[in-house]
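Example A, followed by Example B.
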Amino acid sequence: MLMARPHTPVLFFFIFFFCIPSLSFGAYNVSYDSRSLIIDGRRQLLISAAIHYPRSVPAMWPGLVELAKEGGINTIETYVFWNGHELSPNNYYFGGRYDLVRFCKTVQEAGMYLILRIGPFVAAEWNFGGVPVWLHYVPGTVFRTDNEPFKYYMKKFMTFIVEKMKKNKLFASQGGPIILAQVENEYGFYESAYGEAGKRYTIWAANMSVSQSTGVPWIMCQQFDPPDTVIDTCNSFYCDQFKPISPNKPKFWTENWPGWFKTFGASDPHRPPEDVAFSVARFFQKGGSLQNYYMYHGGTNFGRTAGGPFITTSYDYDAPIDEYGLARCPKWGHLKELHRSIKLCEHALLNGEPKTQSLGPLQEVDVYEDSSGACAAIISNMDDKNGTTVMFQNTTYYLPAWSVSILPDCKNVVFNTAKVGSQTSFVEMIPTDLQPSATALNKNLKGPQWDVFKEKAGIWDGADFTKNGLVDHINTTKDTTDYLWYTTSFLVDETDESFRNGRSPMILVESKGHAMHVFINQKLEASGSGNGTVPRFKIRSPITLKAGKNEIALLSMTVGLQNAGAFYEWVGAGPTSVKIVGIKNGTVNLSNSKWAYKIGLRGELLRIYDTNHLNSVNWESTLRPPKHQPLTWYKALVDSPPGQEPVGLDMIHMGKGLAWLNGNEIGRYWPRKASPHEKCVQQCDYRGRFMPNKCNTGCGEATQRWYHVPRSWFKPSGNVLVIFEEKGGDPSKIRFSTRKVSSLCAHIAEDHPSFDVEHLQIRSIEEYKKKASVSLKCPTSKRISAVKFASFGDPVGRCGTYAVGGCHDPNSVSVVQKVCLNKEECELELSQDNFDINLCPNVAKRLAVEVLCS
């Protein structure tokens, strides 16, 4: 461990980068008191980032962790995903994306702490909440209550994980990075549904975990009656008012949601960086000592790991690091500045005695001062409409609406949450045609050669079983596949003219969820699905029948299993009623007819997406793949997209299905559109409490168009791209797209607080005031190639649409060119040396800049 530095007279500032732990030495002690975790005898303020190892790939882990560290993070947090590790009883897997030990060591090598949320229930919009589906079918099992089978398997798995961590010396007590462990997750919401058995389970879970002797404290988040052996924590958009049940426990925030997840068919939620920063600053203002962003990097629900149902393959979460691993600016940069400012207050916040003072009806200051002379003040304005001026210690401070100001010396504001001065990145998905691989037969093709395999609608290779009536989908497939075929037939009297005279018969299907395609005599006639709120749906559609025998084949589909709720494991799916109306005999109720069932697809069973099983079927080769054809597999050999930028698969012209690259599961694709009648915004007002539907975009557009394909999955050539399309699309329009930062913007006012924070450890903070400045930094290996816009004065517009206002320094562009052109990064002060500061004396001046990176 890095030992604490001696106290500095008057002030006690730690540069953030000196506060990152060094974890390469021996064992260290982790305890806690009412203020914080105590690590090797010193209280520490912890700023944590959730990065889930299965939602990215090992090749990305070091970069994600380092980018978090650069962003002012000193702790990484992750769940442990039970159903990804114990594939069947005692059948464990820890390879690839599930290499938990490697992930932990990646964090350790970066010199950061780790919070391990073993759970093993995670929720997390993850399939079945992270609990293995097979456990539901162990006789007598009820999840998350005082139930012996569940407790047996839960304890066995948690013990397995703890022992694996101990074996690799990953707990702090062994010199490793793990400083906290978690048992259960948000059980407080559901405990009462289980009655007294729920309370007994809570006590059992806490005692069981603590008995593991890890040497680190255990937490339970959102647990309203925690046993004294664990620390209860808060999960919410705001946790400043949260207080742990016991006055002897520290105030922890395990999930601060900087965005929200997406569901297929809904618009795209965003949370403004100003509000995220406001929530964090308020939490530390009111005595918090550990805050974790859920998510800091959301990543991707590869394969069939998304839960919900209807959670998208993308789990971007509007997080500070986007799904592809790029910093989302200005959110990432704004929070970085916040973290540096908060860390300057660390000693005072954790050791000083807090005093709260009202500065107005919605304004207050909390002052922390200790015997060493360290003093920090945090002033907040909770008015969500108006800014105001307040008086504190004989000095006036202007507070924008819904903002928090941080004063590490109780005098100077080094950061205000509403004043965003960090750069904005403009990110584009640049399309690139699929390039036929050099290993293909014809090297001169303009597009790839496609191999095609068509599935049969209905029963293939004989039924798995037959039964009178409709079975539950999930109980039948046990989630081994998304797909279950329900097939039956009925006769239409040859004398029945009702379907020949312009009045089409109708099929009526009622389903518990999640989605369905209806085939009549091998032809796709109708589709239906639920949504992210209600998985139940009805299909009412005209159909084409023929005289004699008609076959009905229903392809029922799950789109991720339920991931939370009391008794959630009992939620079913699949059709509950099937009727035909509008024929001579009236309504034909097929619900209790004899149905033949087939689990999954033939291509799935034969694993034709796997590079080792590609030739399990007879593919038909073509340069013009069939369009709008349901139940079709497509295969092509393609080159890797040029460059090193992250890659997405553009599926906007396809219907719904699954995709693989070189046998790796890209995931479910479904360019389902959000309703144009949803409420979306052009620009979000950060002021006021945030809710997931406050700042949505993308109304009337596909919820998800691009599907992340990690660069590490590609070979230079000979990449096998496999698509299974359910209802029909145009595979000739499938594209890769590379994710590029094409331009950078910055917009900062003259009065923006700015300090030389790298040297704030010494003497008075006032010595290190400097002029407001703009910092611009292109991605690795890119340089600033052009200045698209620059204006010092009162520019108008936003990034991408800046325009000169009524006040403008005509030398603005040339100044920015001189300082920044052809550089990877640059910093430009708003000083008289660079700009005409005396221009427009009655105007509050700003600098707006947009540059291109290439």
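Example B, a separate protein, is given below in the same form.
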Amino acid sequence: MADEILLAEPSDISTISIVDEMRSSYLDYAMSVIVSRALPDVRDGLKPVHRRILWASQEGGFVAGRAYRKCAKIVGDVMGNYHPHGDSAIYEALARLAQDWSMRVPLIDGQGNFGSMDPDPPASMRYTEARLAKVANFLLGDVDKDTVDFAPNYDGSTREPTVLPARFPNLLVNGAGGIAVGMATNVPPHNLGEVVDACLAYIARSVEGGDAITTEELMQIVPGPDFPTGAIIMGRVGTRLAYETGRGSIVVRSRHEIEERGERRTIVLTEIPYQQGKDALVARIAEAVKEKRVEGVSEVRDLSNREGVRIVIDLKRDATVDVVLNQLWRHTPAQGSFPANMLAIRGGRPELLNLRDIIEAFVRFREEVITRRSKYELARARERAHVLLGLVIAVTNMDEVVRIIRGSASPAEAREALLRREWPIDQIRSYIMLVEAIEPQADADVYRLSDAQVKAILDLRLNRLTALGREEIGDELKELAGSIAALLHILADRGRLYEVMREELAAVRAEFATPRRTQIAAAAEGIEDEDLIEREDMVVTVTVGGYIKRTPLDAFRAQRRGGKGRAGMATKDEDAIVGLFVTSTHTPVLFFSTAGKAYRLKVWRLPEGGPATRGRPMVNLLPLGPGETISAVLPLPEDEADWARLHVMFATANGLVRRNSMDQFANIPRAGKIAMRFATEEGEEETGDRLIGVSLLSQADDVLLATRQGRAIRFPGTAVREFQSRTSAGVRGMRLASGDEVISLSILAGRDSGREEFILTVCANGYGKRTSAHEYRRTNRGGQGITNIGNLDRNGPVVASFPAHAGEQLMLVTDQAKLIRQSVGDTRVIGRGAAGVRLFDVAAGEHVVSAARIDEPDEEVATTLDELADARADGLTVDDGTGPETMDERQAEDDE
């Protein structure tokens, strides 16, 4: 053998490039997969396996109206005759055609277990039965009238259609999905009625002429996909992109209902996104609940049945429905996207098609089908009319025909005799005129029979040789004449052809169109992180060392005035709490740094911690530079519509103030924005000044500055001109004594407001008082101010001074990280120069470093502003429900 190889002539061996061979072989394989297996044809919307299933069912007689047949029989016929790729693949494709949750209009009528949307697989093919659905007739109709091309099957033993003469655009109605070599398709299903209407609109514009119909106009008719599982399409952006370019991501959200049973609320998902397995969805929701990505859920149950989907999500008592829903949309497949990729075979090549392309391709295909069908029917009608003319001659000349036949020795001799015989044309001229242009002998004097006519005469039954038979033949000829004229009209007039197409499309719509299942809702503008956060009151705490945290307000309980407090934040020895305010998780907060920059965060982005935790360094939350720390924190109104009427008032420890429009801080990038610079006076060089407060105010508000040494000044906010620059240091708000500094900035309602406010002043040794704001007279900006509180030797330096009312609560924090929460109403109203009462029983060496007003109703305090005004007029004060006392008696008690 080896010798024979060595002796082979060089001319018998050809050299080829392995690269070329691999390229050629791979391309052949790729095109086979693309064209013959994975991608649908734009004309009938079917992949080869689906087309062969329908064709084999038609050939086998497994059609609507007849008995169901075992799926094993159908699969066997398909595999044996047309599709030699394995029975399991064929059966899976057949089962999908019968699933009403997979197909918008199922093409197979199945009997038995064809799976579920859980997704459970269908039962074995030996147990299930199927037949063609009635709508499949409109895909297969006229296939035997030369409307489409046929090709040999895989072994040449029979022939199969290369495409079905579909009467509706099945590619859009039922969609398609498949993965080929280097490409994939994913066409969403649509509503049959809407798609047919779009085709009719396209045809109408084509008949009228003018500009072609646009995708925008088609979208007015087909607003979006219509999934068999319903659900809700969020917005039109993804749909528009898919319809215009062929690719787009369509956001689909589960349909839900809210059920209430007493205090309990339940979210019930009744429709889920297309192609989303129900069991997998329930498992993912349960997993998200377990991992705390979805909070407020107590139980998840699947109560679905034959009547539809019912996924029950029980909520906890304190859960907010909207927040839980947003968490479901963000973290589970209850909301997903359908990646539309409308790739299909057009003209033998894979192409990415938009909505108009698909409708145009279908209309062109139907035009070809109707033309070929009309030609086929015209040819058959003419053939039949030709035969009928021969029968007319036979009936008209019955005696002569009988004589010729009886006189012939054999049928062949009779045939030859009839072919040679010339018949008078006048006898059939009127019949010839009925079927115009099919008989060239119409102008001759005699008529000769053709082979087909002679054969029909010889096959003629005796009962047709009567006058009645002659009349029947004439009636049939007249009917054929009408059919021929109609077919010639279709072939000659494109407008008439389109009219036929419209009639056929309208018939499909009338019989099979159903209401839309998928709702199209306005876009949700995306689910922001904030939408996933429960609205909750928070205490925000800031320390000297730059730590910050948020703690639920419920973590602090109220105590009586003079209590011992409770353990608070665990701070370092050199750290202390310097800022504390109560706000909502959705409130935006401005941070002002020592470098004069402003930053903004929502409260929910701050780290959460318990009362005893330190929080996190702000340098980890904000892009602070080297040596830069946060010096002031300002909570803003949650509703940005309120910002337009507000200004920002700045105050520094050296008594400088500045007023800016809130608009200058509306848009703050993540890297921050320059807010101000520090100096002793406007235009002078920078000194060791620092920002001590930033507040919002309106045009009618007053500004109250309080100092550490017990002084205060009140002046109108408009006394400070509005600065257009954010880098200015401002103007003098208060002239300070040596060693004094401003420690708080408060905004009071103007005297014309008619409201009485009360200034709560807190000192480092735990003493404090409330005083009517009316006792703080309005003066000019830049003065030395008036007395705010007396007896600083006992009280210690002032820590805070701000408006507070009896219906609110007060939170105090010490440098030993103790906290106390008490009713503001426990602190009585006394004069501006009084020394105050004990608020916090601090330990030796312990000092109050921060105080905050909590805007929360106090159920134990029923005091109204009117009662306080009456009590002060009588020289009395109203305590915490124990009855009025004289100011002197209460002061003596406190002194003891």
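On Example B: Confidence is low (pLDDT under 50) at residues 1-5, 571-576, 680-686, 858-896.
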